[in-house]
Amino acid sequence: GSEYVENAPLLTQDMDALVRNRDGCDPSSSRRRGRRRLDAQCEFAMDVVDQVSNVEALVTEAPSQFPSISTQPSSLPSLLPSNQPSENPSISIIPSQSPSTSNIPSSQPSISPAASPSESPSISFSPTTSHPSSKPSADPSSRPSPNCPFVLDECFNGGMWSPFTCECLCISPYCPDAVNGWCTQTSCPANYHETLFDDQRTPWFEYGSSCLASKTLPSSVNAIYQSEEVCCANEYPDNSGGCISRPAAVLQLTFNGELLLIGTSCSTSGSERASAVGTLASSILSSLCEDVSGLTCSDSSKVVVNKYCGGDYNVEAQYSSGRRHLETTDDEGNQQVNFAFITQSTDSDEIQAIQSLLSSYLQGTTLTTFLESVKANVLASNPTSSLQTLSALTYVAVNAFIAGVGLFYPAWGYLETCISDGNQGPYMNRDHESWLYGNLISCCQRYYGWDVVGCIQRNAEATLVSGTISSIVDPTDILYFPDWERTDTCINGGTAPAYMKDEANLWMYESLLDCCKAYYGWEGGFDSCMSSQGGDPPTRSPISESWYVDWGNIACVESCEGASPCGGDHEPWDILHGSKLQCCQIHLWWIDDCVEL
Predict the structure, then answer these.
(1) Which residues, in sequence order, are bridge partners of residue 167?
(2) Residue 131 exposure: Cα atoms within 13 Å on the Cβ side
(3) Nearest 5°: CA angle at 347, between 342 and 351?
(4) CB under 8 Å to 372, separation ≥6 — which residues?
(5) Phi and psi of 160, rounded to 5°?
(6) How far apart are CA 534 and CA 513, in angstroms?
(7) Percent of the chain with pLDDT over 70
(8) How many beta carbons lie within 10 A of that of residue 498, not counting itself?
(9) 3-state SS assignment for residue 393
């Protein structure tokens, strides 16, 4: 029974007696090929009995009721390792080839670390007690971990323990108590909180329905953490994964303006224009950050040039050239530059102050200083030939917006639009993939589908802080739709019925070709539809499956008029295919070069 098998001392005694032939088995008899034959008297007889040290039986996967105690570790580790660390871990000078994946760290770190450092190093808040390395790092840490005499598990009042300075970092109005080090003291040094993170890692804190890392703490912060994972686990215990995936709704100022370049020309070279846009972006950013008194630019500050010489761009100041979204030409040589100064902050008062500072600076005598500075920066940057003749600039303020950069949600009941300030309800955060959207248009289409344009317009009005905004053009105005009631063809121009605009993805198309194929695809109807907008009649079939076999020439051709691969319009009995390859594989499979014919 299992009780007998699992009784290690009794089983060992019985097996030992059988192995050592104590029942009278003669080791000298019945030898075959170097080992004893198993018979009634010698069931466990072995040749070299003195080499047998122990007997191991693999009986069950269940843990033993009588575990054995050995001072020698097994040379054959278990294939089913424990998910808990040993209370008495073995000591080896050879690192393991298959390190543990347990989330519970060992209480005794290895004295022989691996030659190759881990790609996912562990994070410890207390230093190791082992001897220092005899081979110091070639690139020592700028913040080495001290040998802290103690580690506090709790700092209280939202503070966090720093392994770099062996102390609690406390948020206002608290500082460490001189007796126990907890964040309970309220009589703090004058500059304690201003210099708190000078030699520390950037802390994480809850902000805008997520967690954010910043050394500038908003007044609303009531706790700081060592990492995003710890922050999300504490602030959003029911949905920490959603917290990590959601962006924090940091406030962003977008200050838009226009410059008119006098004395320059617009190059016909696309690469030269892109280079000029990069020069303008960096010159504007440099002038603003260096010359505007009181403006402190941060890593989030940038200038984006979005229009130059009639072309649409999206070039940031930190790049010498950018990626064009749309390449256009301007025959009249309009050298207007549209740009946006963008910066972010967690403090609404600070972001408002920056907007006021820029509005005040970009007028009067300081505006003249700014324009002269931009001109000097452009000419000093070895610009393209189109900018080398720059003689002066003029400036026009456009508008400025302050908005969150979080996910968009419907602000039902008070704004009737989608906003991204991070103040969505907890139920939306718990299922953010169903409720929240990464861009305004998608959110408006989901929650205000009957008035998408109005939703976009109201968002602009809600975030506008200076200047004016023009009426937003209905994005469906350029789409084609079937005008059955009047012209009986496909047209565009914004006159589509309301039900088509409300579900434009079902009814409307970006091109006349697609609209005509969808609604007037029959013979004669397609030609008429395509010609109705002043275009030439099509020479190709409107249907996507247009390849068939020309049996007269034994070749696959396309149903269209003109040169090869066109073979003329197909006959009603011809079988059509979506590609020449498909046609060849099905009908002319024996011709090796069918596709090349």
Answers:
(1) 162
(2) 5
(3) 35
(4) none
(5) -135, 150
(6) 13
(7) 70
(8) 7
(9) strand
Establish whether the linkage from the previous residue to 565 is cis, with ω within 30° of 0: yes
Strands, DSSP E only, in 529-585? 547-550, 555-558
Contact 506, 515 (CB under 8 A): no
User: What is the band of 473 on the pLDDT scale with cuts at 50, 70, 90?
Assistant: low
| Rounded CA separation 59/411 (Å) | 65
**For residue 304, what is the enclosing H or E element?**
strand 302-308
Q: What is the mean pLDDT of residues 509-534?
A: 80
User: What b/e string do you get for 69-92 counting C-beta neighbours within 10 Å, with b at 16 or more?
Assistant: eeeeeeeeeeeeeeeeeeeeeeee
Q: In the block, which residue shows the tokens 């579900």?
A: 503
Quick check: 43 pLDDT over 80?
no
Tokens 């950050």 belong to residue: 289
DSSP letters, 68-114, are ---SS--SS--SS--SS--SS----SS--SS----SS--SS--SS--
Place of tokens 């402190």: 296
pLDDT grade, residue 315 (50/70/90)?
A: confident
DSSP 42: -
- Residues 276 and 393: their CA atoms lie apart, in Å, by 15
Q: Cis peptide leading into 113, omega within 30 of 0?
A: no
What does the pLDDT average to over 278-287? 90
Which of 3-7, 275-279, 318-322, 412-416 bottoms out in mean pLDDT, i.e. has the lowest?
318-322
Report residue 103: phi and psi, to 5°. Answer: -80, -5
Better-predicted residue by pLDDT, 477 or 113: 477
Q: What is the pTM of this model?
A: 0.53
Rounded to whole angstroms, the Cα distance separating 139 from 333 reads 55
Residues 483, 528: Cα–Cα separation, whole Å: 13
* 237 three-state secondary structure: coil
Q: Which helix (H) or strand (E) holds 498?
A: helix 498-502
Q: How far is CA 425 from CA 194, 219, 429, 556, in A?
A: 33, 21, 7, 61
Q: Distance between CA 19 and CA 160 in Å, rounded?
A: 64
What distance in Å separates the CA atoms of residue 408 and residue 405, rounded to the nearest whole number?
9
DSSP letters, 307-320, are EETTEEEEEETTSS
Instruction: Specify the 3-state DSSP secondary structure of 464.
Output: strand
Q: Give 419's contacts (C-beta < 8 A, 6+ positions apart).
A: 403, 404, 408, 409, 411, 459, 462, 463
Question: Could you tell me the sign of the dihedral formed by the alpha carbons of 551, 552, 556, 559, in that order?
Answer: negative
Give pLDDT tens digits for 345-400: 888 888 899 999 999 999 888 999 999 999 999 999 888 888 888 888 888 888 88
Helix H or strand E encompassing 340: strand 336-345
pLDDT, the chain, mean: 76
